Amino acid sequence: MKLLQCLVFVVAILGGSSCSEWLTTEREVLENQEDLKRLIPLIEAQSEEDLTPNMRKYYAELREYKKKPHVLGFGWFGNWTGKGTNAQNYLKMLPDSVDLVSLWGTKGNLSPEQKADLKFFQEVKGGKVMLCWIVQSLGDQLTPQGRDLKEYWVEERGKGDVVEGVKAYANAICDSIDKYNLDGFDIDYEPGYGASGSLASQQMISPSGNANMQVFIETLSNRLRPAGKLLVMDGEPYLLSTETSKLIDYYIYQAYWESNTSRVRNKINQPHLDNWERKTILTVEFEQGWRTGGITYYDSDRPEFYNVQGAQILDYATFDLPNGRRIAGVGTYHMEYDFANNPPYKWLRTALYYGNQVFPGKFE
């Protein structure tokens, strides 16, 4: 406990422009500079031009840092508005150490405020933002209101061909991503947890197994990845076949209720998945566990985390895989709930500090 208390104190007081600054609490009000006419809080900044020269330099260094191997900061972000006085509703007010965000509850039709917030997060902070929803049936979340799924996607868009309807659905997702300049799609695939349908089943995803999901992923991959955008799968990525897994950039595991390191290792040990030891991200549930950094009964193999609050998320951030490499990333659901802690986003920020600074891992 003393180790964690000391760390939180250090994270709160670190300053300057060191490489660890993006793992600490950012200033909400920028320091005054001669070439600025007024003081601008970060929440009001619309572009890099609104920042001081020192902050521009800092964020340029942050963007370069994010290009280098490190434990990625990830989260499913809900209640996003990009407006108002509540910093919890802004992407740009997330910790600087956050790399990837999946939008939870956002399907498109972004407001002007959301577009501005998204652009700042991407261009100034170097973050990437993906669309995300549970995919179980053809047309989920994108079927026009009042229209029948089969009639719209198969008969109209697919000209009577189910496979062509699946392709049309995948392309419609890509069109939304292109329209709003988003960075990819996170397929929430959970047939084993009850989210089954015409696209989601517990069959292996392959041409000879779940063939429709195979077509869906192929179409998304062919559109997104050549454009430098991401295609990831969360939920049950172990249902991917080896060949299909080559089309996925990250496997994101909802490792919410695993009680110890060994159980987590067993969950993610999927040698049939392409490059699984470099593409795996572990996540913690924060709808209930945001105060304590995950479940309170978690038992980590690291002696430093024994009987320490936050052991689950700290263990995930420092997780070393069988080949000796560090986990690809750590994240939370809903990440915005962590904002209510003191300091804001205490647990995700602290976990990334542990994973990248206190116990740095191997990535090559």
Keyword list:
globular; alpha/beta; 364 residues; single chain; 32% helix; 8-stranded parallel β-barrel; 12 helices
Structural class: alpha/beta
Shape: globular
| DSSP summary, beta strand count | 8
User: How would you sum up the major sheet?
Assistant: 8 strands, parallel, barrel
- Computed over alpha carbons, the radius of gyration is 21 Å
Helix content: 25-40%
Report strand order across the widest sheet: 1-2-3-4-5-6-7-8
Termini separation? 32 Å
Mean pLDDT: 91
Q: What string gives the helices and strands in order?
A: HHEEHEHHEHEHEHHEHHEH
Spans with pLDDT under 50 lasting ≥5 residues? 1-20, 24-34
Approximate strand percentage: 5-15%
Number of helices, where a helix is a run of at least 4 consecutive DSSP H or I residues: 12
Structure report:
By secondary structure, the chain is α/β, with parallel strands linked by helices. It has twelve helices and eight strands. An eight-stranded parallel barrel has the order 1-2-3-4-5-6-7-8, surrounded by five helices. β5, α7 and β6 form a beta-alpha-beta unit. The longest helix has 18 residues.
Quick overview of this protein structure:
The protein is of the alpha/beta class and 364 residues long. Helices cover 32% and strands 13% of the residues.
What secondary-structure arrangement, pairings included, does this model have?
Elements: H1 2-13, H2 53-65, E1 72-77, E2 100-104, H3 112-123, E3 128-134, H4 149-157, H5 162-179, E4 184-189, H6 211-224, E5 230-235, H7 242-245, E6 250-254, H8 261-268, H9 276-279, E7 280-285, H10 286-289, H11 311-317, E8 329-333, H12 346-358
Parallel strand pairs: 1-2, 1-8, 2-3, 3-4, 4-5, 5-6, 6-7, 7-8
